[in-house]
């Protein structure tokens, strides 16, 4: 078996720069910090958001009010055209069947049917929400719509 000598590539290991060790070292006196000022002093650091003594932006702007972000409801969207492709006449469209056909990724996802595309098959749709145009297309094709989210929101 051949002996290999492993070494780091050229420029991978650099010598640490040592500053503040006298004028003859080439990095003495100010030690690369320039002349005077806050940055040249020991401990001369500022906090994030410091604006040189000016009132910082995060203190100038009022932080009041309400954010709906923690309470927002996200829906997995399925268009009518996908129902036309994946389901046959007389099928029931619900979370289980949508998951089985690969149209949603989780069984507990909230589902909304939107009206993009046309529908010719009679389907029974039982999902959380259905848009007005989708509902009209499903009922026009002879199907029925049952919204489960509307019932739980009104209670």
Overview of the structural elements:
The protein has helices at about 55-60, 80-85, 95-100, 130-140, 150-155, and strands at about 75-80, 90-95, 110-115, 125, 130, 145. The protein is α/β, with parallel strands linked by helices and about 160 residues long. Strands 1-3-5 form a three-stranded parallel β-sheet. Strands 2-4-6 form a three-stranded parallel β-sheet. The longest helix is centred in the last third of the chain and has 9 residues, at about 130-140. The chain is elongated.
Strands, helices and their partners?
Layout: H1 57-60, E1 75-79, H2 80-86, E2 92-93, H3 95-100, E3 110-114, E4 124-127, E5 129-130, H4 132-140, E6 144-147, H5 148-154
Structural key phrases:
155 residues; three-stranded parallel sheet; elongated
User: How would you state the average pLDDT, rounded?
Assistant: 90
> Given the structure, what is the number of helices?
5
Spatially, the strands of the biggest sheet line up as 1-3-5
| Gyration radius from CA atoms, angstroms | 33 Å
Number of strands: 6
Percentage of residues in DSSP E strands: 5-15%
Largest sheet: 3 strands, parallel
What is the 3D shape?
elongated
How much helix, percentage-wise, in residues?
10-25%
């Amino acid at each position: 078996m051949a002996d290999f000598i492993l070494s780091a590539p050229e420029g991978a290991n650099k010598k640490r720069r040592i500053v503040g060790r006298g004028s003859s070292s080439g990095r003495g006196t100010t030690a690369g910090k320039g002349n005077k000022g806050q940055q040249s002093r020991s401990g001369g650091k500022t906090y994030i958001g410091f604006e040189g003594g000016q009132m910082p932006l995060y203190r100038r702007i009022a932080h009041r009010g309400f954010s709906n972000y923690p309470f927002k409801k996200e829906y997995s969207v399925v268009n009518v055209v996908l129902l036309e492709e994946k389901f046959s006449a007389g099928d029931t469209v619900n979370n289980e069947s949508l998951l089985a056909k690969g149209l949603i990724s989780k069984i507990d996802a909230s589902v909304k049917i939107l009206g993009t595309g046309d529908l010719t098959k009679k389907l029974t749709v039982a999902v959380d929400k259905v848009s007005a145009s989708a509902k009209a297309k499903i009922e026009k094709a002879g199907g029925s719509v049952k919204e489960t989210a509307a019932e739980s929101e009104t209670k």
